[in-house]
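Fold it.
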Amino acid sequence: MRILIIDDDVKLCQSLSYKLKKDGFSVDFCHNGEDGLYLAYQNAHDLILLDRMLPSMSGTTLLSRLRESGSTTPVILVTALGEIHDRVQGLDTGADDYIVKPIAYEELMARIRCISRRPRKIEIIQNITCSDVTFHPLEKVLYRDNQSCSLSKREGELMEVFLKNPNRVLTRMLLLVKVWGPDAEIEDGNLDNYIHFLRRRLRTVNSCLTIKTIRGIGYRLEA
């Protein structure tokens, strides 16, 4: 089972990650709502442990957007807000369970075991359409009418970020974190190379979309 922890408490993430890995789980974690939503959208996890109070986006907002996208990934809300109305609101938003801090690890494991026994629906990864192109995430193929081109795994991940955020300025740091990860050792020039590759892919299918350089900040996908 692969678990995603979204919590701004760095020590808690590290502690839970250590214990869960000892018990045989694969674990990823991040510390703000925006990165958490991006990782959750990938449908790569079997369970999400979600803090309610997060920087950049609250846990309930994240959960609401995740459910609106059609995701059925089980979510356990982990929070210091333990009043009945807080629990009810979290469950009504789409949480599968609720656990109050401070966390008793044995209780968390019992809740994880309970959720893992529930049957899950098979999720279909949706194609992404933006302006005149459609991108197939599984096949890593970009289409426009009867024209198409294949992308590498990294190109596909980067293209997906742009297509999900049209007309939005994406900073260099944000792109590096989302595609390569927060701890990846990568030379800054590598991002420029991949931007060049994506521009070439868009031209190959004669798309009206282009990736514009925002000097000193990052890039923006626009028609």
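The helical segments are 10-22, 33-41, 59-68, 84-93, 105-116, 153-164, 172-180, 188-204.
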